């Protein structure tokens, strides 16, 4: 991808254009050169649009229009069932976009018929860069598959490690609890911070990006602790849910130390999912974990 400094980036979604004003990173002693990266997040609703129609071609087109290097996906089916044609949605989208994929299941159930693939549902990362490592972390969850669930550790907090023009990047993708009671989200945020701190210590100098559907707006008290280590790239952008006429901003691109946000937006994609995507242009500072 070319450097987008001093340009306006046009994103096309079903004929609508989103312009991102991108500022040039300032020259600063000790910061080193910045590496551009475009990241996005999208709750794809298992490929079903706001019109209730499953259409993977439409979903792939919406993702392609983002022109992102790295995309975090939520509500991803892998042979889950009839609602998504029993397809490996993560693998299909990666194939159609020519990207690498890492899938982190939240649920992995026995097949309906013996010998069939496991029925899985979770989150995924699509990347133009080789995936050097991948981990499916556990965070607190309240299962939707149990009749009487209790909060307990469960998988589905995905992490991949990339190297972007020599800069190591840890990309995390998550889907926080949807219930009105924030108690589970409070626990999930604590788990998220603990895991990201541990992973940061394990790979000194790595930049961190957290993508996801947080199911809460930026001012929600349960999200407050996240903003101690992360910057919300979408500050000042529009709402993301529901896609047809969004009123809430619950989908996020967030970045840690050494990652500078150059521009972000919410494309006017109203049909491919029940959420709208978020896309951000960022730059990775090569030297030192500098926070602007």
Automatic annotation (TrEMBL):
Domain of life, per lineage: Bacteria
Signal peptide: 1-29
Stretches of the chain forming a coiled coil according to its record: none
Domain Endonuclease/exonuclease/phosphatase: 40-275
Record-linked InterPro entries: Endo/exonu/phosph_ase_sf (IPR036691), Endo/exonuclease/phosphatase (IPR005135), GPI-anchor_lipid_remodeler (IPR051916)
Keywords: Endonuclease, Hydrolase, Nuclease, Signal
GO molecular function, one term: endonuclease activity
Protein name per UniProt: Endonuclease/exonuclease/phosphatase family protein
Source species of the chain: Streptomyces rochei (Streptomyces parvullus)
